[in-house]
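Many introductory courses stop at the sequence. We go one step further.
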Amino acid sequence: MAKKKEAHHGGAWKVAYADFVTAMMALFMVLWICAQDKQILIATSQYFKQPFNALTDRSVGVMQGEAGGSKGKDQTRDTAAAANLAFLNALASELNRMLNVQDIPDEKPVQTELTSDGLKLTLFDRANHAVFKKGSAEPTEWGRFVLQNLAWTIERNNLKAFIEGHSASGFVPTRPDYGMWELTTDRANMARRLLEQYAVNPKKIERIAGFGDTQPMRGHKPDDESNERISISLSTQR
């Protein structure tokens, strides 16, 4: 006598249930984000703009704040700071990827550093990756490439920039009325012009400055080649 075939229940309901739970979680996230203050909204939106989001050990989740009282306000500030830190780390990773500096084994032509104000990029004007032609403010092809990619990043993420020019000691001027102060100021100004030419709204350039040879890199002699550099500080402040 033939056995009756056992009925098999399909697993479609499990897929539907998983989709329902995912949709509810997404709805919760949207409602939570909409309930936050402007600072967190800005930091969160910037973070999710980055295609390479990588949290560091110092960063934490964006959902730790609690409403109410001074404690809630402090936690809100901490939450915004954490989201902003994650965004800046992702931005630094993206810039390194775009410029391919991670594949250069020795001295990096571009250095990224997180500061209290935001993200600081240092473009070293070394002989093997010169940003400017020797003794002038005329950019090289490498310098244009770096500043073009940086311009797109600044404009896309709605950042503000502060540009500094620095020089190593021992600069020999081509004329008596043109020294290190003029050279570093002209280089910072050239960087500004290129950023604006490629993409950046002029209102996003906060200021430029030339420091001559007064601020050598820490741990380097005043005449070290690494002191020939342009520093661009990026800020998310509104």
